[in-house]
Structures are given as C-alpha cells and as structure tokens.
C-alpha cells in the first residue's frame, strides 16, 4: 500500500544554462517521463531537495556560478538528495573529465552532441533501476507486523523534516502514542491476540493524518509516532484527539484494563520550531515527556509538553 503506484510517471530534472539544450532534451523525453527544468545549479539543488524530488538528474557540467561538478558534489553530500541518480551531459569528452564526474558519484556520463536514441535508452535503464531501488527501499521501511512505516522510516523522516523546518523556520509537530495497559492485554488474550490488536490500532492511527508528508510509524513495541511537518499546535492537537477517538471507535474489548472496557491509547504532543544547536532527538524527548504526563494523569488522553493541562 505504500509502494509507488505503477501509473505514476517518474520525473527527470534537466539542468543546463542553455535554453536550447534544455528544450532539445525535454522534447526527447517528455512523452515518457515528467520533466522539470533548472537553468542554474542553485535552482537544481532547490528542486532536488523539494517535497517532490526528481527520479533522475541530467546535469550539464559547464554552467556559470556553480558548475555541474559542484552541484553533483552537493547532491551526494546531502542525505535528502544523495540517492537521486545523476547523469552528466557534457561537451567535455576527455577521459579525465568522465573519470572525475563518475568519481563524484554520478551514475553515467553522456557526451554532446548527444545521440537521441542512446540518451533515451540510458535514461530508461537508469530509471528502471531507480524504480526497483525505490521499491526495495520502501519495503525495508515497513513494519512487518502492522504494515505501517517502521522505526527506520520514522528516523529518516524526522531527520529530513527537522532539517527542513530548521531551514524555513516552520513548525514541526510530533505525537507519541502508547497503548494503555497493553501488558494486561497480552496476559488476557495471548501474544497473538496482542499482535492482532497492534495491527488494528496501527491501521486506525494510520488512517487519520492526510497530507503527503504526515507520517504514522510504529516506534517500537506498542508505541507509535505521528510526525506532522509544517503543522501548528492547534491542528496537531486536533489530529491527536482524532487519533485517540479513532482507536476508541475500534471498540476492541480489553477485559483486564483497570481503566476502560475497551483498548485506549495515551498521547503526548509537542509542537516546536527547531532552533540552531538543538538535535532532532529533542522533539522526541519533549513528546515522550508529554506522553508520560498523559499516563500519569489517567491515560486515554492527550497531553502536550509545554503545558500541564490535558484534554480528554
Ligand atoms: P502503560 O499503560 O503504562 O503503557 O502500560 P503497558 O502495560 O502498556 O506498558 P508496558 O511497557 O508495561 O508493557 C508493554 C507490553 O507490550 C509488554 C510487551 O510484551 C508488549 N509488546 C511489545 N511489543 C509487542 C508485540 O510486538 N506484540 C505483542 N503481542 N506484545 C508486545
Ligand atoms: Mg503501554
């Protein structure tokens, strides 16, 4: 369910300071793939780091201000963009240039004047490989038991969103969610019963956030995390309440809970704008602290880290 839809067109970013070159490549590739263009290195980097990055970059070497080698170097240095394959398209056809380009992490090197069928074939091959790498990467980021994102995916998303929020000064919200009295649940319904409960709770949590970058992941054991980029406190609180009531609406019987006849969850929310010098770990600690407060205050409720109040 999280894998790329096969109907989705892969996209190519063409980077060249010459409009004529861009048009020639775009014309050649536009029927099969979605095309993005940039006429300088800075724009290329911005598009590569955006929320919908390209699947492949065709990169001219000689450009004013930032040349293609520098663009490639920066792409490969950043965890957000390092996996986007880069092909140099250049008039510099010496072996030294090609060797240097490949040493920077480019996957291929095409010399101008280009042969249209060869460019198309190489692009197709690299995009095909990219598609399978994406599928592999995606499946290694899914929790085997519940089918939602796993801890690895969460850690990566948090690191990327933390960086983005730091750069743009935007709000980042995190909700930590923990099933109440789950040890008792296992004791009453067995470990397999507990597993089924985890699956149902995970699916119910997963169905709440709606924006493409919102993420619900299994953080570990019976704890889940919901990461909401560019989300203010008020909206995040609404989401947290929706998560809580959606789990309650499952009406999963919990006969050994001292609290309720149904399975419930406690939630800790924090919203912050990352500051220089802070680590991404900080937002987890804050949300964990809020979760602890929700547990202490009686469970089946939302607490937030910068306030002693809670809602239920
Ligand atoms: P609290 O309300 O304070 O959160 O109490 P709790 O019982 O939920 O918390 P505690 O940390 O004491 O117990 C968590 C339980 O979750 C213990 C562990 O066996 C169970 N658990 C963790 N992972 C899994 C899993 O994958 N499957 C099952 N069935 N149980 C699991
Ligand atoms: Mg628990």
TrEMBL record:
GO terms for cellular component: plasma membrane. Residues 11-127 form the Response regulatory domain. This is Stage 0 sporulation protein A homolog. Coiled coil: none annotated. Pfam families: GGDEF (PF00990), Response_reg (PF00072). Residues 170-307 form the GGDEF domain. GO terms for biological process: cell adhesion involved in single-species biofilm formation; negative regulation of bacterial-type flagellum-dependent cell motility; phosphorelay signal transduction system. PANTHER family: DIGUANYLATE CYCLASE DGCM-RELATED, REGULATORY COMPONENTS OF SENSORY TRANSDUCTION SYSTEM. Keywords: Phosphoprotein. It comes from the Bacteria. May play the central regulatory role in sporulation. It may be an element of the effector pathway responsible for the activation of sporulation genes in response to nutritional stress. Spo0A may act in concert with spo0H (a sigma factor) to control the expression of some genes that are critical to the sporulation process. The modification 4-aspartylphosphate is found at residue 60. GO terms for molecular function: diguanylate cyclase activity.
